[in-house]
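Working notes for the structural subgroup meeting. M.R. asked for a predicted model of this chain before we commit to crystallization trials. I am recording the input and output together here so anyone reviewing the notebook later can reproduce the run.

Input as submitted:
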Amino acid sequence: MMKKPATLVRRIPWVLVVFVAALFIPWVGNRYDTFLATQIAISALFAMSLNLLLGTTGLVSFGHVAYFGIGSYVCGILMKTYAAPFSIALPAAAAGSALGALVFGFFCVRLTKIYFAMLTLAFSQIVWAICFKWNDVTGGDQGLPDVPYPDLDWMSSIPFLNDLRIADQFYVLTLVVVMLSLAAIKRIVASPFGLMLTTIRENPERAAFVIAGGFAGIAGAMFGIFDRGVFADFVYWPKSAEVMIMTILGGIDHFWGPVVGAATLVLLNQEITSYTEYWPFVLGVILLLLLFVFPGGIVGGLTSGLAWLRRKTGERFGA
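Returned structure, recorded in token form:
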């Protein structure tokens, strides 16, 4: 029996397809394209980690940036202060953020709705205050500038990668890390047989909180290297609002929604700031229009539009 087109579409390994398509950016684009693609990839992982709370358990966290910041500081401190290799710093960042989420989650998940959201915001402000004041470790208000790139000499032995600039090589590394993380998240969300999903089902709020924190820490670690420094602004509450907008804009009920939302927000930000200094106002108006036109997010709106088109096409041809 021939499989339906919708079934075939679901069987396509979209994470791999997106990875292959994005991999060609350093060769087909310019330096600015690679810069934007790196920022989008990291933002997409950050938004996807938040959606593990929003989309999976319905928890609205205003303090998710805390785990992003913990990951960036752990990785930055290990690589700059202690000259630790990236292969150690990145897992340590994920573990540190997950541990922070475990501690905060112990208190946060006991509350519901607005009380939960406000408590997550309170914990994120505590993390920000520590990062801003602990000069001996975090650099205080000066942060940790000049976080080094990972050692990427091993790419010189790989065909097509040996001629890339260091920023392009870091983009490839970022893409691999992000896509592996997205594949893991997809398994957690979609597979009823995965061990991690079983853990979530037994203790949904706390387990999802810890897993989301770990992936946010990976995003933070990559962003600290990408930004060539780690600063207290990484942990300040507006960044939680930014990632919340990304997630909702793309669509919390669709796996690729946060990715689309992250790409949309980053590109809109770049375009608007190139024309006017009042980009927050213009961006706010655009976001309001998009959310009114697509109440289920961009991906939700496109999905509904395609479903409507299929119905109309079926009616026209008597299907």
